[in-house]
Amino acid sequence: MNEATLHARLAGSGVAGIGALDTSAKDPFVVVEADTLLAALAFLRDDPQCRMEMLHNVTAVERPEAMEVVYHVCSLTHHHSLTVKVRVPRPEGGTHASWIPEVPSVAGLWAAANWHEREQWDLLGVRFTGHPDLRRILLPQEWIGHPLRKDYVYPTEHGGMPLELDAVPLYERRAGDPAPEPKPPREAGTPLFQPPAPFSTRPEAAGGKTAEPGQGGGEH
Amino acid sequence: MGVLNNTLPDIAPVKAVDGLIGWGRGSSIWPMTFGIACCAIEMMAVYAATFDLDRFGAGVPRATPRQSDLIIVPGTVNAKMAVRVKRLYDQMAEPRYVIAMGACVCGGGPYVKWGYNTVKGVHKIIPVDIFVPGCPPRPEALMDGILKLKEKITREAVFARRAATAADMEARYVQRPVGGGAGA
Amino acid sequence: MEALELYTVDERADLYTEELRLNLGPQHPSTHGVLRVELRMDGEIITGSRCDIGYLHRCAEKIGENVSYLQFTPYTDRMDYLAACNSELAWSLTVEKLLGVEAPERAQWLRVIVCELNRIASHLIAFGTYGIDMGANTPFFYAFRERESIMALLERPSGARMLYNYVRPGGVAHDIDQAWLPDVLAFCDEFERRWAEYNQILTTNKIFIGRTANVGVLPREMALAWGCTGPVLRGSGVKWDLRRDVPYLWPYEEIEFDVPVGEGTHGTLGDCWDRYWVRMREMMESVRIIRQACARVPSGDFMDKNLVRQYKTPLKPGKGEAYMRCENPRGELGFYVVSEGGTSPLRCRARGPSFCNLSVLDALLPGCMIADGVAIIGSLDIVLGEVDR
After folding, report:
1. What is the DSSP letter of A211?
2. Cα–Cα nearest to C216, from C373, C78, C344
3. How much of chain C is in helix, strand and coil states, percent to nearest 5?
4. Cβ–Cβ of A138/C54 closer than 8 Å?
5. Chain-centre distance of CA B164, in angstroms?
6. From residue C125, how far is each of B42, C106, C330 by CA, in Å?
7. What gap in Å lies between CA B142 and CA B106, rounded to an integer?
8. What is the widest separation between alpha-carbon atoms in chain A?
């Protein structure tokens, strides 16, 4: 069955809150309400015509207006798949530190969701209610912040380990060292390291075109 | 040997003994089986038959750091792993050597610009003897690095004095604990 | 298991036992990378396990949001560094879906050959390191001898031994030389003879069978629920291969090949030996695919002409999102890319097969002995670059 037929079947299943099939993006997807997410996905898993045995992927996408959680489910018996989305709108002034959107967890339906949801909690700060063990999976447990947020500021060190390119090595630090001078706070979205501009071998006097600084080293 | 290190005058008999010990150490550098990422596969290729490392005496990898002389760090070190790398290095007994293999541990590699939790070069954590750049370095490059390390070890002065005063030695070679001495 | 009933607390009331906490740490010869498993044990039997990953987390998804589409191709290499071309292929197909282009015919067939060669190389490492896990050191050297031949072959078109940056959105990066296809066919002939040797060394070895049969049995429903794909799923008897069922490259529809599944030959269906034997037979199927593909490579462009012109400036696919999945040697690699029209994606998510295959470990380990635990980790054939990204 293709996505249109699957969507028709899902819409006719009696579960409320199923949106229309959105085909404006390259891959069609269905937007579902957060309250009826579990019922909709359970229908997709158990209905004999859909039989989505495998949850392939759980992704969270941070958009300016909402946080989307995208579920890719696929069926091995029927060779079809469907993309289901849930949107949690961003409240006024919902920034990195303050906003933790909540979405029900599907770990009860597919065991695969366990680790996927832990990863999205770790990297994007989406709390999955009902998850058996929601803690960080990729980053250290004491890490602060959710790195894939758009307003994430990179840390300078963690757990005593320096994370900067110009940090003083651990074995060269002495007890009486003066504290390093405080650097200006880093902005979100800036890279940790800017490579130096490529220099041109042709002198300007010869009339050759010089590379402008900031072109970047062969940025494609 | 520890109490005699760097104490004897720099005369010919001492230098000869140094040379003998250096030759012995350099010809049997036992690395630790430690693989982090992609460079570890090229390191395994160096141990394997085509680029055999055993013929240089370095083909007895020890699983435990307490019995190994060399730690080759292949692959990106991130914040979580850095604590373990430091602990492994601390567990090694002197004389111990470090080869940083790969662009990631030489200076951050491809993850230097946008990696939020990668350590930009393992020399920020442990003192490195040889840097082998490449992504990943060819097995020949790693072999070249190990042979350069062998040269370095052979030329090392074990008994002959390397510094003027004991205070200078202490300042140069004694390591401070992580975080306690940093103040940063 | 008989071993569990041997000494129970009731029988040996005079024996005082305590739970042992063992750390199968990130530095370990048998964890296939920097994987940490916290084990709770009763003597030699594992009663509980907790996987701790993230020791190779290299911020690939954040990097994907900041570099351009072509610049991200080398980072996909480094995710599954043993099957670099397959990972690049998944990324390239996703970007091509967003752009709405298709690679030319010659590029498609070259992609098939290069990806299947990489599949053989990856399964060779699985075979060699599995031997080391079991205590057999010889297969490792044989595997790396064959890997050197494959890497020499792949170095000729791409320029690199391991992390190729060869399969790019729009086609492949460089053309092959005249003698490449005959050399690939010569390698196939050579490899078939060596494969028989591997079976003599390891597959039919009584000790190896004793250590892997009936160990780590993964039932079909559990594999599907935990999202396992690839040889882990096929070892449990599920005949599912994306190359045959949802072909992502149309040449796969024109090539004849079988999909090996586990049959419970030496023990229960879905044990470690079945997964290992699926990988061994897949190497032979890959040889079959390569032979047919080498005969079919047409002349023509190796990269889409419009895209080559466009590569002078960064690619801008336009608003949209795409999800493509490909059959990697370890399972199904999926890339979910959301583009808002800029030069970098808004979200670039890699669904690593090893990530999902590894999640089943916490359910498989309890109840078996520590040596069997090592066999199970080896049979899942994980690559930590893909688990942690």
Report:
1. P
2. C373
3. 50, 15, 40
4. yes
5. 25
6. 12, 29, 12
7. 13
8. 77
The total number of residues shown for chain A amounts to 220
Record the tokens describing residue C67, joined without a space.
């570099």
Task: Give the residue from C127, C137, C383 showing the smallest Cα distance to B59.
Answer: C137
CA pair distance C217, A218, nearest whole angstrom: 51
Q: What residues of chain B, 141 to 160, have a C-beta less than 8 Å from chain A?
A: none
Cα distances from B37 to residues A203, C334, C376, in angstroms, run 43, 21, 21
**Burial classification of residue C291, based on how many CB atoms lie within 10 Å of its CB (0-12 exposed, 13-18 middle, 19 or more buried):** middle
The one-letter code for the residue type at C99 is: L
Q: Are A96 and A149 in contact (CB under 8 A)?
A: yes
| Inter-chain residue contact B117 with A173, CB threshold 8 Å | no
pTM of the predicted protein model? 0.89
Token output for C87: 């990972």
3-state secondary structure of C334: strand
What is the per-residue pLDDT for A211?
Answer: 41
Largest separation between any pair of C-alpha atoms in chain C:
80
Phi-psi region of A191 (alpha: psi -120 to 50; beta: other; left: phi over 0): beta
Contact B41 C162 (CB under 8 A): yes
For residue A150, give the amino acid letter: K
Contact C351, A119 (CB under 8 A): no
- For residue B139, how far is the Cα from the chain centroid? 17
Spatial distance between the Cα atoms of C55 and C37, rounded to a whole number of angstroms: 12
Please give the structure tokens belonging to residue A9.
Answer: 């079947």
In eight-state DSSP terms, residue A88 is: E
User: Residue with structure tokens 């003597």?
Assistant: C43
Neighbours of A199 (CB within 10 A): 8
Residues of chain A in contact with residue C320, where contact means CB-CB under 8 angstroms, are 25-27
With b for 16 or more beta-carbon neighbours within 10 A and e for fewer, the B72-83 pattern comes to bbbbbbbbbbbb
pLDDT of residue A110: 93
For a pLDDT cut of 90, what percent of chain C falls above it? 73
Q: What is the pLDDT of residue A214?
A: 38
- The pLDDT score that the predictor gives to residue B155 is 82
Token pair for residue C111? 């992609």
Task: Name chain C contacts of B87, Cβ cutoff 8 Å.
Answer: none
pLDDT of residue C186: 95
- Give residue A104's pLDDT: 94
pLDDT in tens, A50-79: 888 999 999 999 998 899 999 999 999 988
Q: Chain A interface, mutation test: which of C101, C349, C354, C382, most A Cβ atoms within 10 Å?
A: C349
In whole angstroms, what is the distance from residue C173 CA to residue C303 CA? Answer: 7
A148 contacts in B (CB within 8 Å)? none
At a CB cut-off of 8 Å and minimum separation 6, what does B180 contact?
Answer: A175
Q: What is the mean pLDDT of residues C164-174?
A: 91
